[in-house]
Amino acid sequence: MKKIWIKYTLIILFLLPLITMIVINLNRDKLENDRNFYGKECSVDQLKVTKNGYEKYECNVKNITKKKELGKIKYDYADNVTQFELTAAEYEKYAKGVDVFYIYTPECELKYKSNNGILTAAFSGKEEYLYPHRFTENEMEGFKNVVIENSKDKIFATYAFEAPFGAGQTSEGMPKYQDKKGRKLTSDFSVSLKSADGFIEGESIIKSGKYDQLFEDKDFYQKSTTKMTGLVDKFLLFSARLNKNYPDSDVNSYFAILFSILFGYVYCFKKRDIGLIAYAILALYCMLTEFDSPTTHVIIFGAFAMALLWNSRSEEAEEGEENAEK
Questions:
Q1: Membrane-spanning regions, if any (predicted)?
Q2: What is the average pLDDT across 119-136?
Q3: Phi-psi region of 43 (alpha: psi -120 to 50; beta: other; left: phi over 0)
Q4: Residue 238: pLDDT band with limits 50, 70, 90
Q5: How does strand 100-113 pair with strand 48-60?
């Protein structure tokens, strides 16, 4: 009776973290704070112009090629960055008799800030000018409307997500980033207009609470300043890490330990052949799936070696007892 009680107590203790993890996720709505920044809270009037200027680029006249087209003389400019065409009048006014001349691309920045987050937008003109040029007031108002219209259905986290195919991409089209309600999160997106290209970024500045670090989206937001140092807190954090979606989840090692103990028990006390087959299946599964890690393999085969050693010593003890009886 005592052995049975010990066995079931150990089973409950090993399953307790897994049960706790399930309870934590079932109560996610109560435990986790809403740290999203919603683009819909910003209006056109609240979006402020922080910059309306231009980018100046130096051009060397050595890169100009003269040509004649339909009886008219024109000039082509081309370097490693840009290429464009100059009329004869433009060449006479801006490029003749100088070593360098300049082209100008209009640029502007818009910004909104609240207690919940920051929304910024940057637009760069598609047309280049031979003289300093800025966006007009009408164009700026148009950009504001575009930002608001395209941001109203967006939900922003705190940190920018890594684009899956390298630099230069936005976080759009990355559905794996979701909040606690399964809604898509983003950090930035781009828009393309007839006169300009825009890049819009949103950032939540809402602070994380103590229990927000128990969930898989913890790295999307500001890190909690409250440490989980108590015994109960550490147990909750360990249990939360058994969620397969949690960053650096411990679920693989946890189940490897459970399976090792189970199969070791089967091998030593029940049927050796079944135990060996079970271990072989588990090892093969580990090598072919997400269990593939050195730590997991050490746990599995280490436990199996201990089971063999345990069984060997048991057999020696039994033989010793038999010899003593003889």
A1: 5-26, 251-269, 276-309
A2: 94
A3: beta
A4: confident
A5: antiparallel
Are the beta carbons of 107 and 53 closer than 8 angstroms? yes
Give tens-digit pLDDT for 144-198. Answer: 999 999 999 999 998 866 544 343 444 454 446 778 788 888 888 999 999 999 9
Which tokens sit at 131? Answer: 């003289």
Supply the pTM of this predicted model: 0.70
Contacts 24+ apart (CB under 8 A), 16-22: 17/235, 17/238, 17/239, 17/242, 17/254, 18/239, 18/242, 18/254, 20/235, 20/236, 20/239, 21/239, 21/240, 21/242, 21/243
Q: Residue for token digits 């066995």?
A: 7
Count of other CB atoms within 10 angstroms of residue 206: 17
Report yes or no: 47 and 112 within 8 Å, Cβ to Cβ. Answer: yes
Burial class (CB in 10 A: 0-12, 13-18, 19+), 261: middle
Q: Is the pLDDT of residue 36 over 80?
A: yes
Question: Smallest Cα–Cα separation from 58: which of 104, 25, 1, 20?
Answer: 104
Running DSSP on this structure, what letter comes out for residue 46? T
